[in-house]
Amino acid sequence: MHLAYPAVLAALLFCTGLYGVLARRNAILVLMSVELMLNAVNLNLVAFDVWLSRAAEETLHSGQALTLFTIAIAAAEIGIGLAIVLAVYRARGTSDIDRLRDTAEGHETDTSETGPGTEKAEATA
Amino acid sequence: MNPAATAALAAAQHGFLSPSGVEIAFVLVGLATLGAALVTVTTRQLVHAALWLVVALGGLAVEYLLLTAEFIAWVQVLIYVGSVVVLLLFGLMLTKAPIGRSPDADSGNRWAALTVAVAAAAALVWVVVDAFRTTWIDLDGPAAGSTEVTGASLFQNWVLPFEALSVLLLAALVGAIVLSRKAKAESSSPPVNARSVTKSSLGVTESSDREGAR
């Protein structure tokens, strides 16, 4: 098999995930797009590992080992990410990342919009 | 003759215009995977995005099988399709994601995002094709990623990272539990005059829910 096929598929999947991260508004959809990008990298690692295990005499199978590590770290990331999204949702009542701009600079006009969220945060604090 | 030169010779013999059966299967499954990924990032129904993500991740598992990395394919099915998507669906349910079409699934900068993504895709595909046009993967012979080979290399050469990863997973587990328990622990032990505050904050949450649904 030509190495170009998995490499091109991985590049296209990565850019699909990139579009999703930049364009989505719901935090959980952003997490899904991050998963797509991680999977594209995994496909690259596996394809290059299969190629190198044929081309080289001695191999550590580093691509496949790193793929397994990436899958485990992605599982940890999705758990932590969802816990953070749930905590934000509990505190603010929304998982819309366009509204979470309390720490942004130059958005004084948005204080009325994020007013209830800050009130709630103060009430629970 | 060294193996790299052999592989280059094999790639010269195999043109792109006469694909092998494995390549045809790879391209077809790859098209399905890419289509499912595109629907995942563009659909306006949030639950459908998670379900299309299952198709994309399952297609990637088939691609791993075609690349003879069977252990990783089954790990992909078990972890991604089995647990990550279920976690995402639970997250969508717990944040009260709207069922049906939500008009504001995409933010206002989608055209900038599309520009960045298309430019990155064009650059990456150009560079990758230019670099690996003549590279040939020899898929014959024993599988490169069978369970035996993967296990042997993992426990001969990668033992320390493996153990460190188990500690990292434990830390992530504890962290997720702490993050998701903290608010509940604070609100379950209110001070004496906290009832009115809790009630008003509940009302605020409901109003902001309505705001979010709108």
From TrEMBL, chain A:
<feature type="compositionally biased region" description="Basic and acidic residues">
    <location>
        <begin position="100"/>
        <end position="110"/>
    </location>
</feature>
<keyword id="KW-0812">Transmembrane</keyword>
<comment type="similarity">
    <text>Belongs to the complex I subunit 4L family.</text>
</comment>
<keyword id="KW-1278">Translocase</keyword>
<keyword id="KW-1133">Transmembrane helix</keyword>
<comment type="subunit">
    <text>NDH-1 is composed of 14 different subunits. Subunits NuoA, H, J, K, L, M, N constitute the membrane sector of the complex.</text>
</comment>
<feature type="region of interest" description="Disordered">
    <location>
        <begin position="100"/>
        <end position="125"/>
    </location>
</feature>
<feature type="transmembrane region" description="Helical">
    <location>
        <begin position="66"/>
        <end position="89"/>
    </location>
</feature>
<keyword id="KW-1003">Cell membrane</keyword>
<dbReference type="GO" id="GO:0042773">
    <property type="term" value="P:ATP synthesis coupled electron transport"/>
</dbReference>
<protein>
    <recommendedName>
        <fullName>NADH-quinone oxidoreductase subunit K</fullName>
        <ecNumber>7.1.1.-</ecNumber>
    </recommendedName>
</protein>
<dbReference type="GO" id="GO:0048038">
    <property type="term" value="F:quinone binding"/>
</dbReference>
<comment type="function">
    <text>NDH-1 shuttles electrons from NADH, via FMN and iron-sulfur (Fe-S) centers, to quinones in the respiratory chain. The immediate electron acceptor for the enzyme in this species is believed to be a menaquinone. Couples the redox reaction to proton translocation (for every two electrons transferred, four hydrogen ions are translocated across the cytoplasmic membrane), and thus conserves the redox energy in a proton gradient.</text>
</comment>
<keyword id="KW-0813">Transport</keyword>
<dbReference type="GO" id="GO:0050136">
    <property type="term" value="F:NADH dehydrogenase (quinone) (non-electrogenic) activity"/>
</dbReference>
<dbReference type="Pfam" id="PF00420">
    <property type="entry name" value="Oxidored_q2"/>
</dbReference>
<dbReference type="InterPro" id="IPR001133">
    <property type="entry name" value="NADH_UbQ_OxRdtase_chain4L/K"/>
</dbReference>
<keyword id="KW-0874">Quinone</keyword>
<dbReference type="InterPro" id="IPR039428">
    <property type="entry name" value="NUOK/Mnh_C1-like"/>
</dbReference>
<keyword id="KW-0520">NAD</keyword>
<dbReference type="GO" id="GO:0030964">
    <property type="term" value="C:NADH dehydrogenase complex"/>
</dbReference>
<dbReference type="GO" id="GO:0005886">
    <property type="term" value="C:plasma membrane"/>
</dbReference>
UniProtKB/TrEMBL annotation, chain B:
<keyword id="KW-1003">Cell membrane</keyword>
<keyword id="KW-0812">Transmembrane</keyword>
<protein>
    <recommendedName>
        <fullName>NADH-quinone oxidoreductase subunit J</fullName>
        <ecNumber>7.1.1.-</ecNumber>
    </recommendedName>
</protein>
<dbReference type="InterPro" id="IPR001457">
    <property type="entry name" value="NADH_UbQ/plastoQ_OxRdtase_su6"/>
</dbReference>
<dbReference type="GO" id="GO:0008137">
    <property type="term" value="F:NADH dehydrogenase (ubiquinone) activity"/>
</dbReference>
<feature type="region of interest" description="Disordered">
    <location>
        <begin position="184"/>
        <end position="214"/>
    </location>
</feature>
<keyword id="KW-0520">NAD</keyword>
<dbReference type="GO" id="GO:0005886">
    <property type="term" value="C:plasma membrane"/>
</dbReference>
<dbReference type="Pfam" id="PF00499">
    <property type="entry name" value="Oxidored_q3"/>
</dbReference>
<comment type="similarity">
    <text>Belongs to the complex I subunit 6 family.</text>
</comment>
<feature type="transmembrane region" description="Helical">
    <location>
        <begin position="24"/>
        <end position="42"/>
    </location>
</feature>
<feature type="transmembrane region" description="Helical">
    <location>
        <begin position="49"/>
        <end position="67"/>
    </location>
</feature>
<keyword id="KW-0472">Membrane</keyword>
<keyword id="KW-0874">Quinone</keyword>
<comment type="function">
    <text>NDH-1 shuttles electrons from NADH, via FMN and iron-sulfur (Fe-S) centers, to quinones in the respiratory chain. Couples the redox reaction to proton translocation (for every two electrons transferred, four hydrogen ions are translocated across the cytoplasmic membrane), and thus conserves the redox energy in a proton gradient.</text>
</comment>
<feature type="transmembrane region" description="Helical">
    <location>
        <begin position="158"/>
        <end position="179"/>
    </location>
</feature>
<feature type="compositionally biased region" description="Polar residues">
    <location>
        <begin position="186"/>
        <end position="206"/>
    </location>
</feature>
<dbReference type="GO" id="GO:0048038">
    <property type="term" value="F:quinone binding"/>
</dbReference>
<feature type="transmembrane region" description="Helical">
    <location>
        <begin position="73"/>
        <end position="99"/>
    </location>
</feature>
<keyword id="KW-1133">Transmembrane helix</keyword>
<feature type="transmembrane region" description="Helical">
    <location>
        <begin position="111"/>
        <end position="129"/>
    </location>
</feature>
<dbReference type="InterPro" id="IPR042106">
    <property type="entry name" value="Nuo/plastoQ_OxRdtase_6_NuoJ"/>
</dbReference>
